[in-house]
Structure formats: structure tokens, C-alpha cells
Amino acid sequence: MATVQEVEQDAARIAQLVRHFEESKDYESQEKIFELLERIDRLHRTCVWQIYELTTQLGGKGLIDRLARDPVIKTLFVLYDLFPPDETKTEAK
User: Fold this and answer.
1) Are 41 and 76 in contact (CB under 8 A)?
2) Which of 33, 43, 68, 86 has the fewest other C-beta atoms within 10 Å?
3) In angstroms, rounded to a whole number, what is the distance separating the alpha carbons of residues 85 and 52?
4) Domain spans, the chain
5) Rg for the chain (alpha carbons), in Å?
6) Largest alpha-carbon pair distance within the chain?
7) Buried b vs exposed e over 18-30: b needs ≥16 C-beta within 10 Å?
8) More confident residue, 23 or 1
9) How does pLDDT run across 8-47, given as a tens digit for each residue?
């Protein structure tokens, strides 16, 4: 199981890789890479939103509040626009 620090490191590395491919002059590969990322995002987003909806229905607000206290789960839910970004983290950067 990855730690919060490892998840944050992975997120930072993903951002670096995306920037690298955005700057690439290999437009054919760039197009395919971004299509891949878009399809992965859509697949994950659909699944995560469905899990969130079922969790809300079956566990109620109390369970969602408990999940929000877990930094890894909160990161995932923020990435998929289920929770607002943590204002304190964005201001510190």
C-alpha cells in the first residue's frame, strides 16, 4: 500500500511527464498519449463517481465525511472533482 508521501510523489511525477509530452515535437505520439490519458481519465472518473454515489447512498454523509479525513482518498476525490481542492495546500505552493 502506498503512503501519502508516495501518492504525492506519483502525482508530481505524472505532472512532470504530462509537461514533457506537452512540449514534445513528436505530434503523432503526443496525440496518442493524450488520447490514452483522456480515455484512462474518463474510465477512472466514471468508476470513482459511481463508487462515490453508492457510498453516499449506502453509507450516508457520515461515511463520506470519514473518507474525507483519509488523505489518499481525499486526494482521489479532489482529482475527480468530488471534493473541493484543499485551499491550504494550493496557497502554500
Assistant:
1) no
2) 43
3) 17
4) 4-87
5) 16
6) 49
7) eeeeeeeeeeeee
8) 23
9) 899 899 999 999 999 999 999 999 999 999 999 999 999 9
